[in-house]
Design a protein that fits this description.
2 domains, eight-stranded antiparallel β-sheet, 29 strands, mainly beta, four-stranded antiparallel β-sheet
Length: 342
């Protein structure tokens, strides 16, 4: 049994802005994490999660010259690419209308089925990448007749699927821009965010699209970056009675002639704590009312375990006669408090 004689409550008093950094995926390619955590949500320091992919524009159409296509202007989420914004991660690419983007055809009937991909490279420019040709299309990236493996750090916008070795204009039916198949978008698959744990979780595994060369096996998913601010915590003096934000369940029932059917519902409760104030007017914590802050609770501030809660701060003050001003603080969260062993 532990007696809480050295517990402490801390609040997010300031923020430390971090640059964009690559997130690390698990083996299932569904959950991606940053070492830097938790992530602040204070206005002006909101986190930016940046899976690579097309955002707007980028339509690929047939060109005039043989084998050529044209590319509409676009924006893409590519934080590490040359020319991308250091704060938003967005890259703007101008249209390509000079027929300089050309698909590669096979050299003979035996290699006529050949796929070229329109990409945006890590240098921020449009480029074509081609796999080897075959006598039929296959789904395997990097294989003859399959889509090329895309260089890591690039994104795929479209595939041009040609079936003839003879030079000719590209037709509209040979251009494919299917999200999740021949095009990478920043918002696909969709994901949920856990700023306390410093993670995002996709609803489906990111596909293996990228490889060391166009004709090598695709062994990597697209890049996922994030730009976050981490909190600077300050201890709240004379605090007590910390209550974490936790989910509670309630039972409901409906009665029928032949029995009763039960059901339950869940609700997320507020976190709260009490504190004695200075003058109850100019205390630093009072200036944070209405802000979405991070709070840290340590059952023993001399040991490693701690708990993180994030939510909007509310306050109810009491000015008693002959007593120190006191307040009950509430934290309205979007997720449960999270426990960390270290």
């Amino acid at each position: 049994m532990a007696v809480l004689s050295s517990a402490a409550v801390y609040y997010e008093s300031a923020q430390s802005q971090q640059a964009f950094a690559a997130m690390t995926g698990n083996t299932a390619r569904t959950t991606y994490s940053l070492t830097s955590k938790p992530w602040s949500s204070v206005s002006g320091y909101e986190y930016v999660v940046a899976p690579y992919g097309l955002m707007t524009g980028g339509e690929v159409t047939a060109g005039v010259a043989d084998n050529a296509v044209r590319l509409a202007a676009l924006t893409a989420m590519m934080p590490a690419a040359t020319g991308a914004s250091a704060t938003t991660g967005v890259l703007t690419v101008n249209a390509v209308t000079d027929d300089s983007l050309t698909a590669t055809r096979g050299s003979s009937a035996g290699t006529a089925y050949r796929i070229s991909s329109v990409t945006i490279t890590s240098a921020g420019a449009a480029a074509m990448v081609a796999a080897d040709g075959s006598t039929a299309f296959v789904a395997t990236r990097g294989a003859a007749g399959g889509p090329p493996a895309i260089p890591l750090g690039s994104i795929e916008l479209a595939q041009i699927k040609l079936t003839s070795a003879s030079a000719a204009p590209v037709s509209a039916t040979e251009i494919f821009q299917v999200v999740g198949d021949s095009q990478e978008r920043y918002d696909y698959p969709v994901y949920s965010t856990d700023p306390i744990r410093g993670q995002i979780t996709f609803v489906a595994a990111l596909p293996l699209v990228h490889g060391s060369s166009a004709t090598a096996a695709a062994t990597a998913a697209k890049l996922v970056y994030a730009r976050v601010a981490t909190p600077v915590f300050a201890e709240i003096s004379r605090a007590r009675n910390w209550t974490p934000a936790e989910t509670s369940n309630s039972t409901n029932s409906e009665q029928y002639y032949d029995g009763t059917l039960g059901s339950f519902s869940s609700s997320l409760g507020q976190s709260s704590f009490e504190a004695a104030l200075g003058d109850g007017v100019t205390d630093a914590l009072l200036a944070k009312r209405g802000a979405n802050l991070l709070f840290k609770f340590m059952p023993d501030k001399n040991k490693a375990p701690y708990q993180i809660t994030q939510g909007v701060l509310g306050v109810a003050r009491v000015f008693g006669v002959g007593a120190n001003p006191t307040a009950t603080f509430s934290v309205s969260p979007l997720q449960e408090s999270v426990d960390f062993a270290s």
